[in-house]
Amino acid sequence: MKRILSLSLIALALFTVACATTAVTGPANVSGMVTAVDGNTITITPAGGSATTVTLVGDSIITWPGGVPAASADIVKGHTVNVWLVPGSQNAARVNIGY
Questions:
Q1: pTM exceeding 0.90
Q2: What CA–CA distances, in Å, run from 77 to 3, 26, 29, 68, 95?
Q3: Which of 67-70's residues contact partners 24+ apart within 8 Å by CB, and which partners?
Q4: 15, 74, 88, 89: which has the fewest Cβ within 10 Å?
């Protein structure tokens, strides 16, 4: 019984470390209003700024407020979004709708 508990705790610790290293952190790269949606690309315009086009990819994490899962089809013109990009690209790693 002690061995199973020990192995379970070790597995939980490893899982926690794995999740922490793959999590998207830091401030959003792009924030603003969705001004266009064209297939898997969205154009985001910050208040008083210039538009940025971002590509949604298969592993983009898309959520509603509170972390409720959403789909790329849920992003429509007029939504406000925060977008974290994959480093060195215009691909979205994470999109939060309606901040």
A1: no
A2: 54, 25, 19, 20, 14
A3: 70/97
A4: 88
